[in-house]
């Protein structure tokens, strides 16, 4: 099978979503994310950055497209600076659903990068890819993240107790969904 083609998507606010590269700005994004106390706990971002760990992270993103398990995107600001990551993960595609995950580095938070990226990927997944249901999971304490999901049109369906391993402990997660039939 052919690898997935990760497209370039325009997003609101001048943001662009694009594939990961080995360019220095993308490796710098991984470095900043690795310094965050939370991002490495729930993602594959290395907890301790080195250039080789940064390269391995980017290669993991490429592998997802090669194995057809997901579309990993860099969220890029209007000035060309990479500020975050959003992924559309296809593990449950045969059941008519896919999941999304996103993060933005601390220096770029509060500028609606996550919302712009989430909206662009969700609309593309529902319309261009024809995926009937999108899901995402957010820790209840992470108000910024769940408010982002709600602004984009996701509906909170409930609390999943002990749903996900975060670091070394199982954590509750709010489950959100957006359906192709929601009409937004």
TrEMBL record:
Keywords: Transferase
Lineage: superkingdom: Bacteria
Domain N-acetyltransferase: 28-181
A GO-annotated cellular component: cytoplasm
InterPro entries: Acyl_CoA_acyltransferase, GNAT_dom, Ribosomal_N-acetyltransferase
Database matches in SUPFAM superfamilies: Acyl-CoA N-acyltransferases (Nat) (SSF55729)
GO molecular function: protein N-terminal-serine acetyltransferase activity; protein-N-terminal-alanine acetyltransferase activity
Stored Pfam families: Acetyltransf_3
Protein name (Swiss-Prot/TrEMBL): Protein N-acetyltransferase, RimJ/RimL family
């Amino acid at each position: 099978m052919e690898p997935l083609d990760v497209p370039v998507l325009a997003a609101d606010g001048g943001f662009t979503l694009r594939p990961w590269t080995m360019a220095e700005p993308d490796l710098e994004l991984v470095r900043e994310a690795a310094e965050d106390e939370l991002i490495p706990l729930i993602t594959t971002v290395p907890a301790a950055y080195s250039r080789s760990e940064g390269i391995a992270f980017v290669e993991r993103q490429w592998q997802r497209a090669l194995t057809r398990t997901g579309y990993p995107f860099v969220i890029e600001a209007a000035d060309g600076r990479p500020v975050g990551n959003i992924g559309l993960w296809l593990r449950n595609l045969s059941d008519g659903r896919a999941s999304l995950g996103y993060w933005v580095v601390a220096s770029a938070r509060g500028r609606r990068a996550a919302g712009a990226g989430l909206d662009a990927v969700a609309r593309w997944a529902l319309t261009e890819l024809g995926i009937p249901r999108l899901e995402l999971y957010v820790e209840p304490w992470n108000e910024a993240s769940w408010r982002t999901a709600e602004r984009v049109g996701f509906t909170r369906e409930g609390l999943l107790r002990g749903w996900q391993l975060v670091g070394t402990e199982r954590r509750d997660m709010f489950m959100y969904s957006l359906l192709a039939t929601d009409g937004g």
